[in-house]
Amino acid sequence: QVQLVESGGGVVQSGRSLRLSCAASGFTFSTYDMHWVRQAPGKGLEWVAVIRYDEINKNYADSVKGRFTISRDNSKKTLYLQMNSLRAEDTAVYYCARDPVGGGLDIWGQGTMVTVSS
Amino acid sequence: DIQLTQSPSFLSASVGDKVTITCRASQGIGSYLAWYQQKPGKAPKLLIYAASTLQSGVPSRFSGSGSGTEFTLTVSSLQPEDFATYYCQQLNSYPQGFGQGTRLEIK
Question: How many CB atoms lie within 10 A of CB A52?
Answer without folding.
Answer: 15
